[in-house]
Each structure stands twice: as C-alpha cells, then as structure tokens.
C-alpha cells in the first residue's frame, strides 16, 4: 500500500532543501578544503562539510533536530496529537563524539550516540525513536520499515531521518585506499578518483495515503507517494558491490510497488564515483531497463553534495521530490567522460532536463551488500 510523503527537510553543504536543489540544477560542487577536520590526521584535504561557526561533538543530532521540526511543520503533523514514531538511518551515529572523548575533548552519556533525546526535544510527544546503523543504505531501510509501520496500523505518521557527520576514522579510511587524492566526486565518470564524504541530515514525514491521513492539522498535503522500497542483503563482500544483489533490490522494489521498469522516467542513482560501485550500478541499470525505449533519465547527487553516508538515500529522495514538483532533472555534477558500462544510460549531463515523468527510482547501496531501492510517484 503506498504512503504519502507529507513533508521533508534537508541540511547539506549548500543549506536547506530548496538551496540544495538549486545548487544541483546549477551543477555546482560543494567540495571545499576541510575546515573542521585536520587533513594531516587523515590524508584527506577536501570534503563536503557543513560549516558550523562553533562546531561541537553532536553536530549530526543538531542538524537532524532542525530537519525534524521543519518536516513535521511542513506536513502539519503534531506528534502530541497523532501517534508518531521516528526511525533514523545512519552510518556512524555520533562517532565524532566518541573520537572527541578518546582524546579527552568530550564526556557524555552513551545514549547521546543515538538520536532519541535530540528528536524528543525537537518534537515533543513523539513516540519511540529507533536508530538503524546500516551503512550507506540506512536511510532506505528506515524508509521501508516506516512504510511497514503505517501499513500495519502501528503508527499514524512516521518521521524518517538520516544523518551523519564526518569522522576522523572514516576520512582516514578514504585517505588510505585512494591511489590518487581527489578534490571532488565524479559519479559515473571514467576519470574518477574516488569518493569524498559529505555532511548532512534529512527528515521525511510519511502518513497514510488517504484523505484523512495525507493532510495534517494545517491542511497541507504531500504531492508524492512512496510506492515501495526493495531490499537485499547479499553479503557477497565486505565492501565491493555485487550487481546481482543490486538487481534483486531493484526487482523487489517493483514487486512491492506493483510497477514495471517501463513506468520509471527518472533514476536517482547511488553514484559514488568509485571504481567498483559505479560500474556495478551501471550494469544493473542497463540490465533492468534494457528493454525500455528510450529508458529513464539517470542522475546522481553526490558530485554536488558528497557521500552523506546513512542519510544519502533520503537526500536523493528529497531531491527527487523537488524534481517531480518542478518537472526537471538535475545534471550529474562533475560528469565529463562517462564510464563504458554507462554508455547505454541516459545520463543527464551539463544542464537540467525537463521531464513529464511521474515515477522515480532512488538507489542506495552499502558495505556488505546492504541495498535499498525506493520507488516514488507524483500523487
């Protein structure tokens, strides 16, 4: 059963949701020299940071709280008046606080590593808050569970969140595996040099897809439905993706949504700009849409905003909602020479493209073959 996306809010290196979508349309790149991290500790000099004048150890919680307030207000949902649950997808929770504590810069209660207190403060009356640490597809898995809760009548509304801040440990991993230091992400580009982290938070409010549930107390209704989210966990390799596992998640999404590949007009790809992910995703997309003529337009947001880890699925979804409402698809920032595996895809390059498409696919894949693919549709 579809559910309605009644409201959303974003924080990225460009600002809020409208500012981020405008930057995507201009094919901007938000990568800058790191200001909140010491490049000497990690070997990484660039990233897609959110600049906080007075950064603290719980930045991800603060961004998520702001997004929760904004998304609930946009949806007209009062958690004190409606049974509202929250599910947060994250890659690292509040690991920056652990790193700060390890060097004697912070002390805190372990419950602060999750997001229950932050969301309770932002949304008084909210019910249970669940945190899923599921790598880079965590937000997609949170989306799937949220839809289940509404379909089963366990909640009247679900606040789905995703957030991550940069950590020294993740930056160090990137700095030690990249053969050549990179200054930006180039999704599906043959000359890519690897991924860079992005910071951000997203909150999306889901409600039942009916006249009573789709409008909140303020009478505002969402105009996009979540049709379904396909999942797979192939555990094929610790880090390398498997295109057959990716395909299983894609096909599961269509089975759950009651749609076919021919219904999709736009794909927001995972597109990390890495040597293994992009070819695998391109092969999966080519196989999935191989009989579709002309096939969907394909874009990706990480060239503009970086890899926002556990929130990346929801960030793509929020941008896809903006795109559906505007009838436009943003270009892939940084794409100059497409990969051979992507030769048959209709990659959006250089400038936005107008579209009348009403159905959009959103891809998100994580380490360990933890995959999530969502389908949304204009209401």
Task: Describe the model.
- This protein is an alpha/beta fold and 379 residues long.
- It folds into 2 domains: 3-208, Peroxisomal Thiolase, Chain A, domain 1 (3-Layer(aba) Sandwich); 228-378, Thiolase/Chalcone synthase (Peroxisomal Thiolase, Chain A, domain 1, 3-Layer(aba) Sandwich), CATH 3.40.47.10.
- Helices cover 30% and strands 21% of the residues.
- It contains 11 helices and 15 strands.
- An 11-stranded mixed beta sheet has the order 5-4-6-7-1-8-15-14-9-10-12, sandwiched between helices. Strands 2-3 form a two-stranded antiparallel ribbon. A two-stranded antiparallel ribbon has the order 11-13.
- The longest helix has 17 residues, at 59-75.
Protein traits:
alpha/beta, two-stranded antiparallel ribbon, 11-stranded mixed sheet, 379 residues, Peroxisomal Thiolase, Chain A, domain 1, single chain
